Amino acid sequence: MRLTVFFLLFIILETYALNGYSQNQKVSMNKGTATLAEIIRQIEKQTDYLFIYNEREVSLKRKVSIFTQNGTVASLLLDALKGTEFSYTMEGKHIILTKKQAEALSPVQHKKRITGLVKEYSGEAIVGCNVSVKGTTIGTITDINGKYSLEVPDNATLVFSFLGYKSMEYPVKAQQTINVTLGEDSKALNEVVVVGYGTQRKALVTNAISSFKPSESNMRPVLTPSELLQGRVAGVTVSTGSGNLGSSERMSIRGAASLSASNEPLYVVDGIPILNSNASLFNMGEDLSSMAVLNLTDIESIEVLKDAASAAIYGSRATNGVVVITTKSGKEGRSDIRLNVSTGISKFANKGRIKYADSDLYVETYNDGVERYNRQNGYTVGSAGYVVPISNPFQGLPDTDWLDLITQVGHSYNVDLSFSGGSKKTKFYVGANYNYQEGIIKTNDITKINLKAKISHEMTSWLEVGANVSGNYLKNNRVPGANIGSTIVARAVEQRPFDRPYKPNGDYYLGGTDELARHNPLQILNEEVSYIDTYRYLGTFNADLKYKKFSLKNSVSTDIGYTYDYVYYNENHPYGAGGGRIVEYNRLVKNLLIENVFNYNDKFGDFEAGLMLGHSFQKMSTRTSSIDGRGFPSPVFDTVGTASEIYNASGGISEFAMESYFGRINLSYLDRYILNVTMRSDGSSRFAPSDRYGYFPSVSLGWNVSKESFWKFPQTDLKFRLSYGKTGNQDGIGNYAWQPLMSGGINYGNNSGMAVTSMGNNKLTWETADQYDFGFDLGFWNGKLNMIADIYLKNTNNLLYSMPLHGTSGFTSITSNIGSMRNYGVEFSINGHLNIGKVNWTSSFNISHNKNKLTKLLGDDLLPIGSNRALKVGEELGAFYLFQMDGLYQYDGEVPQPLYDLGVRAGDVKYHDADNNGIINDNDRVLTGSSNPDFFGGWNNTFKYKGFQLDVFFTYMYGNDVYAEWAVTATRPGYRMAITEDVAKNRWTAPGSSDKYPRAVNTLCGHNSKNSTRFLEDGSFIRLRSLTFSYTFPQVMLQKICLKGLRLYVQGDNLLLFSKYSGWDPEVSKNMDPQYFGVDLYGVPPSRSVNFGINLSF
Fold it and tell me: What are the Secretin/TonB short N-terminal domain coordinates in residue numbering (predicted)?
């Protein structure tokens, strides 16, 4: 690979260094006639010349006569262009073709030469820009550097025009140099935004829609589209459960809007709503997002529909917003081949943020706890309860770096190849991708293979057919240890520093013994195999009928996924005793979608109107099976069929169907006043027949103030937006929550049978959200500076939640509609371009603020959930429910008698006694802090100088709290687990010595380990998310070796973290549900990586 890149660079540089060009170079061509395209091709092939011309002026199909078989470039061009309206000039090794100046200057006119430079707002030169004198045929085009030179009459007006840019007129006065900057012409580009079931011109968009276009410069080494949006889009937060490859992720648009139903947005890929259920079947290890199977380089654009007015067209699945992904298509014209190759390394980030006590310091602290324990309980040497201090268990105390033993430097490789193109009638795109990534924890890696083909063909003027298919394979070798009661990382770092993984004979020390306090993490890594294979097929076949201003699109889509989940425990594994154990799960999901969409668009004078009507039918079926085999004759036999005992086998089928009708009306007047109205009706089998249908309307208004006659700022655009919409949510409750369910395998006496295992609720209904949004779009200097702001209010009603039931009912819970929630917030984003000398700076910044609170809760006003959370009316989802730490007891006399009787002494934690009864129990817990930030966002900067480019991308979050659950054990001095150096050195030892860390105690001491504010920390951070340095070679250098583009880059990801949080990373969480998010139990931080790559196009 390195040798290939070296020779490629050598060839490029050698080509660039060639100077032996002149108009006397010889060219050989057959006599007769040929097109200009053929002549240009032969000259460029046989010489070092490159042609520059304006395709709108120079017709390459024009046939000319060739009289010279072997001659110079100059003689050939003179003969070929004789009698035509074209002429040529030579500048260095560039030949510029232009139309002849048919209109000469009159003798009485004075003339002068004007020179200058034409560029775009980014600072890049515009090659081939047409420069002409208004009212004449005098003109030229800019050269390869964007420069021009032209003789013009006095008092002339120059016109600068180029496809995709706004034309500019510039009067010539006394100047001899005129430099201009052309702004993009949105009308010429026909800029559109993808919306539900169609597209809209950006000028007519009245909703809160954010667009992101993945490119070579903003790509990051991530697995899912949502991670690409991290910090890029206002109002969107993306978090990962851990840095393990394949870990679950959490994407939230404008805050959490549900308690137990899904808070994930709806993903729509090329029109197919994707089922975003996790790929892991029964919670065996990490939950992998189903979006991880997509090839990110196939993505053309991502639109985030944030307000209800834009998302309501998707009805009952759009409460959490919609992410619309459009993949690349072929374009009419020259074929394009792209090859992207990259490789990189990654490592455990921020390891030094948690510093553990070494063996000597640990033993000192531990023995202090032993001495206090024995003295408090009156134990002496020889007593039954006496605990012996540590002396020298291994004849010399080692310091084992347990984290180093289970981590590694991960390597990654990515190869991406695509081929696209098309003619006027047929367009195609074919892509293939291979991606391999090693995780930073040993045994963890992911392999992805993607194949995609997209083609459309115009059969007749009224019929176009198309196919869009992709096949995806993903294998995730997961981090073992999902069933050992904690993570593998926790089991490693909780070991005492002098513990060793191996006995002198090479066998593993076993956990829970005198030699090793916890499960041996190396044993788990080496004697457990855990992986998941995922196969995914996405396919859409469509037929589009067109007649004048009418169109009808008919499509059939299928989404088929198969996952195979495998876990093997060696016979020496704690869960493999008795000959080993294999657990297998299989799941096959079939999703069929049939849609018919009718469109009508027309103009009536100054009015522009559009009508869309549609019908959708979706059916999904899921078939699962699982089997648990135990007792194998040898580790060689690693299939369930060789098990001596089938401990458990089960299976099931689940089905779901939904039928929908939807429509949209668009109306605008002079692009000035805009009205959009949508309606959708969904019928879902997940609800009882009486509540099966839900209706989801929306209306939005837009006012383009800059289109008004009174607007006196020609280079400034201003548009106001106002919208209302209703959306729904039905995910996360299962397919049969409205009716009782029965399960088999229920034995009574000697007979097997079935029994009702869950209650149904036939009163269950849709979770709905009413959302209001007001915003504006403001642009200055023809788009050189842009601002977007929105303020919103979202009320969610009929919250779906699994309510606990009293044990006398015979059931544990029932799904019900229990309350209401409110989200409100503000979003602001700004982006702009600035030229500083020859350096172009592009910057974009966004900031968002979102708050939520429960406004209604069925039954009690306070509902505790989990060990450190609770729901309460008037409080926000994400608040912590904790004991309030009030320092430490400094003297035994301060301890209330009930607590003293339980063993609490001076040096133990003092909690706030809310009811002042001298007893600390659950009634003393309070709601405090929140995992929700006060504000968050991202800041991206791009600096360009010639072919060099530097991209610097930051993300930030402020005001969010993290519950450091890892610190419950790491700040427990005196117990048989590792502790931090800070705790060991600053623990309480005598009155006044500390008010932060309690005394050393040789017991578990649940009092000091209560879920309290002692472990609640500020999780605010600023992160250098990505830093990329690249060089793009000029096309002039590449054309001689048949390359259209070449870019080399080096990229660093997650390079810096600025945070007061004492853990490894404030963004990770052991649970991704919004009501539990923000709890860190040794979550593996996102890896720190460096990648090197090359982008080639042919």
Answer: 49-100
